[in-house]
């Protein structure tokens, strides 16, 4: 590597989390973490669903040695199921930390509880799959925000895989994500094949897209149902997945003509200001789906010559919509606009609710791509209030 490029590469790798440091086994035997009976939920054990309204499935290893059960960054010995509520900030020593109220539930009872909640809500379920650099607390916070912000009518499920929750552990997260492919696809297949599940809304963030897309394809190929049409509304927020791989594979199963005809669609939120995906591109060598970076310099020059924004998107496919949030990007990384930017949050809420068009979207030269622009009447909206609001929802 030429020396002049070394600082840039090091900065990119630091942002992306590439690190020579490895995660170690730790000072405690993993069997000791789960030895307490609370780590193995018994059939018929009561769970206060009113106090713990959200569902989770996780492949994380739990630590049941103290009063507060914690889900760790290590791989678990099996998939566990349970319920949780929004995390609370508590004092641990002299520091404040998030703690998620939660309780495990035996798998058969969990599925029955999910059915009971789903039956109350016309068969709709929302499944959230997180990305890189997350803990169970941060993903639970996001899942609760999604439920609150969208007013989703139906149970919300968080699928939590063993992300490390650290900037310098991207490579470990990527490894654990790929290790979890079988766990997640089996879980999604079981969910999709439940006759009482009429519609699954899947929301994935960042690295989570690399779990979601192959899993949907797997369910499409192997499901006992004819067309897996209940997986109907797929939202990829800042997806850290190879753009060309996505383009090549998506039409084979996930957006095949018969699935689009059965109402399946994918909405992708992208941003040219996404520094995390720019770093991922530097690490992997090719552009990510969630970043409209022009890998082809001739395409970029052509757009510039036409006076158009130099942004390149995934190719058009029936059933696919791309929402460019560059102009309303928020935070230093611009990697979570669907949860941080008022304009993007409003759009996301409508997509979750099944709306396919919004007057706030600005058309581009591509029929499947729309830009979100600041509202001239409200150029500085209260992002936190809008993205964390409790919307008014009509009774089911």
TrEMBL record:
<dbReference type="InterPro" id="IPR029058">
    <property type="entry name" value="AB_hydrolase_fold"/>
</dbReference>
<feature type="signal peptide">
    <location>
        <begin position="1"/>
        <end position="21"/>
    </location>
</feature>
<dbReference type="Pfam" id="PF05990">
    <property type="entry name" value="DUF900"/>
</dbReference>
<protein>
    <recommendedName>
        <fullName>Lipoprotein</fullName>
    </recommendedName>
</protein>
<keyword id="KW-0732">Signal</keyword>
<dbReference type="InterPro" id="IPR010297">
    <property type="entry name" value="DUF900_hydrolase"/>
</dbReference>
């Amino acid at each position: 590597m030429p020396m002049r490029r070394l600082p840039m590469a090091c900065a990119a790798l630091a942002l992306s989390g590439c690190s020579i440091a490895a995660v170690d086994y730790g000072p405690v035997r993993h069997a000791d973490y789960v030895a307490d009976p609370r780590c193995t939920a018994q059939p018929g054990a009561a769970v206060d669903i009113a106090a713990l309204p959200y569902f989770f499935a996780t492949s994380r290893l739990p630590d049941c040695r103290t009063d507060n059960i914690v889900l760790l960054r290590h791989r678990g010995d099996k998939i566990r199921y349970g319920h949780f509520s929004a995390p609370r900030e508590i004092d641990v020593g002299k520091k404040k930390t998030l703690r998620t109220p939660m309780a495990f539930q035996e798998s058969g009872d969990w599925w029955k509880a999910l059915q009971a909640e789903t039956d109350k809500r016309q068969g709709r379920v929302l499944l959230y799959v997180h990305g890189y650099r997350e803990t169970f607390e941060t993903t639970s916070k996001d899942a609760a925000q999604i439920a609150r912000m969208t007013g989703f009518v139906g149970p919300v499920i968080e699928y939590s895989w063993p992300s490390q929750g650290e900037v310098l552990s991207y490579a470990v997260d990527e490894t654990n994500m790929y290790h979890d492919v079988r766990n997640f696809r089996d879980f999604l297949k079981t969910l999709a094949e439940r006759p009482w599940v009429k519609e699954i809304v899947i929301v994935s963030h960042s690295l989570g897209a690399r779990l979601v897309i192959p899993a949907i394809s797997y369910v499409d190929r192997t499901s006992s149902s004819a067309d897996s049409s209940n997986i109907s509304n797929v939202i990829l927020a800042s997806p850290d997945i190879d753009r060309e791989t996505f383009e090549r594979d998506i039409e084979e199963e996930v957006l095949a003509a018969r699935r689009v005809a059965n109402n399946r669609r994918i909405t992708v939120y992208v941003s040219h200001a996404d520094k995390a995906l720019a770093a991922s591109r530097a690490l992997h060598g090719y552009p990510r789906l969630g970043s409209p970076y022009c890998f082809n310099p001739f395409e970029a020059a052509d757009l510039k010559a036409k006076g158009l924004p130099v942004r390149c998107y995934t190719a058009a496919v029936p059933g696919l919509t791309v929402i460019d949030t560059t102009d309303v990007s928020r935070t230093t990384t611009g990697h979570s606009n669907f949860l941080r930017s008022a304009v993007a949050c409003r759009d996301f809420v409508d997509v979750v609710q099944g709306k396919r068009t919004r007057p706030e979207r600005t058309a581009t030269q591509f029929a499947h791509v729309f830009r979100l622009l600041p509202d001239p009447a409200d150029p500085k909206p209260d992002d936190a209030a809008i993205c964390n609001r409790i919307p008014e929802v009509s009774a089911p």
